[in-house]
Amino acid sequence: MRTMENKNQFKIGIFLSYIAIFLRIIIQLGYTPFMLRQLGQNEYGLYQLANSVISYLSLFSLGFGGAYVRFYFRYKADDDLEGIAKLNGLFLIVFSVLSCIAVLAGLVLVKETHAIFRKSLTPQEIEITQLLMKVLVFNLALSFPASIFQNFITAKEQFVWQRGLNLLTILFNPFLSIILLFMGYKAVALVVATTIVSLFSFTINIWFCLGKLRMRFSFKQISPQLLKEIALFSFFIFLNSIIDQINWSVDKFLLGMYVGSASIAVYSLGAVINNLYLQFSTSISSVFGPQVNRIVSTSNDNHELTVVFTRIGRLQYLVLMLILTGFIFVGKPFTLLWAGKDYVQSYYVALLLLIPVTIPLIQNLGIEIQRAKNMHQFRSYVYLAIALFNICLSIPLCQKYGAIGSAIGTAISLILGNGLIMNWYYDKKIGLDICYFWKEILILSKGLIVPITFGCLINYYYVIETWKYLFCWGLVYVTIYSLSMYLFGIQAQEQQKIKRNVKKMYHKVFKKKTYK
Question: Where are the domains of the chain?
Answer without folding.
Answer: 1-222, 232-449
